[in-house]
Structures are given as C-alpha cells and as structure tokens.
Amino acid sequence: MDQNLEIRGKVCVTGASGYLASWLIKRLLLSGYHVIGTVRNPENEKLAFLWQLEGAKERLKLMKADLMEEGSFDDAIVGCEGVFHTASPVVGPNSDPKVEILDPAIKGTLNVLRSCKKSPCLERVVLTSSSAAIRARDDFDSQIPLDESSWSSIELCESLKIWYALSKTLAEKAAWVFANENKIDLVTILPTFIIGPSLPVDLCSTACDVLGLLKGDSEKFSWHGRMGYVHIDDVALIHILVYEDRSANGRYLCCSTVLENYELASLLSKRYPSLPIPKRFMPLLKDRAYYNYNTSKVESLGFNFRSIEEMFDDCVASLKEQGRL
Description:
Strand order of the largest sheet: 3-2-1-4-5-6-9
CATH superfamily: NAD(P)-binding Rossmann-like Domain
C-alpha cells in the first residue's frame, strides 16, 4: 500500500459489480476510502476481479442487498459518510417493462434513500442518473444546448416505449422529492454513453454494443443515432469530485463529445483501419432533432473531459487485452 495515501472515511457503492460501479470502486480505493459494495450475492465467483483492485483486501467489503427489498441496504449504509447509488437495470425488457426496468429503478432508488435516512453520520448521497433523463423530449430548441435544467418528457418516453429513459427520469425525480422531504444532501450525475475499459468478466449491454460496432455489426449500433460520449474514468472521477466538493449541488451533466453515429464510425474507421467498422447505418428516426450539451456546470468545478479518441483508445486496448478483438 502507498505509505503516503491519506485514509479517508467509509462510503457505500450500490451495484458494486457493475460496469461503472466497479470503476468507481477502483477510484475510491485509490483515493483512500473504505468501500462497502452491495451485490446480490457476495459469494459469486465472478466478483473475483473486485478483490484484485489495489487496496481491496484492506478497504473493500462486499455485502448482500437487493433493490426490491426494503431495508436490505440498512446494514451496508449504516456508518457510511457517503453513498453512491449506481445500481439500476439497463437491459431491454423481455416481457413486462414495469417489472423489469421501472420498478427496480424507482423502488430501488427509494429503498436505498430510506436506508440513507437511517444513517446518522451520512453526509451526502451521489445518485447516478443519465443524460437519458434530459434528452428524450420533442419541444427543445436545437440551437440551445441541453443542460441540467432539462428533463425528459414522461409522455414521450411512454408513447415511444423508451423504458430506460423513463426509468431514469422517474427514478431521479422520485429521488429529489424524497431527498428534499427528508433533508438528504443529494447530488445527481447524468452521464452520456460511457466508453472505456471494462473491469467485470462479463460485458454489460453498453460495452457489448461498442464491441459489436468495432466488430462490424451495424445493427448493434444503429439505434444510437446522435449520442454524447464520455470516458468511464471521467464519470467515476466526477462522482468523487461532487462528493468531496461541498459547493457541488443539484444535477451534473457529463459529456465529452456529441456525434452522429456515422460521424463516430468515420472517426473510428480512420483511427483503427484494421477493424471492420461499419461505414453506414440505417437511420433510427427521420428528421431527428439536432442537439448538443452544455457541460459548463461540471467544468466550473475544474473538471476537463478526455477526448473521444482517448476514450476509444482505452476501450479498444482493453478489449484486445481481454481477447475480444
């Protein structure tokens, strides 16, 4: 262990085995925090990668918790000064979207916050929301970049069956109501599409889409259309930044670059000529509104985003190291 490392307080990270959560835990451990990670089954062999993180053997503890069980986060959160709630369903629904996506996102968030309310030493909660809670609307001015004041339209999400965006929007709105009513210091992070190295053994749906794109599967990425991109390490660092900076408040949009999928494909095919990057995509929606993001709020805290090239360089290197490319 680094003898000069400043040992910090105890924090909880929900959904510890996830793509972003595992990277956040890596960064928290490197920063000297004691981390309680919640998972469905602490004995799962696929969690071995977490114990290989620097500082894990000394300052990581995994505890069982379930989003749909009220009170199941109590033991993990009690005694923690901070909570990072990242756990949320991402995969597309196979049958009932309410059961598979909406309930776990909304009820799970409220279950975590109820446990936070019971912890006397809690200082701040950082909730991972999504830019999907901002951009799914049809009444914005394409000349004005979207920022933290924007909210996705619940009616539009329901009519188009955009269940992920709906779950993130409703869960974040519910979190703000609960936090305000119960005087919980809440900050929310709204990342765009996250790119970068994957620590878990199994790739999440996000990482699978990127792998599909790099292997020439245009269908895998066609639905993305215009999209913002951000490095996974930047998102993890911003979580810690807004937790530690007591001037931070409200929502924080995290995005480095916004591109159409054909612009991304062009950039990637030139950068990685040996990979079969698709040259064309079928448009998802005709006359899709142009949009951009205003990230000045998080930049005002002194944060600078990594480039689209750097995030994909790190992603490609990781996939090659894992033998996937």
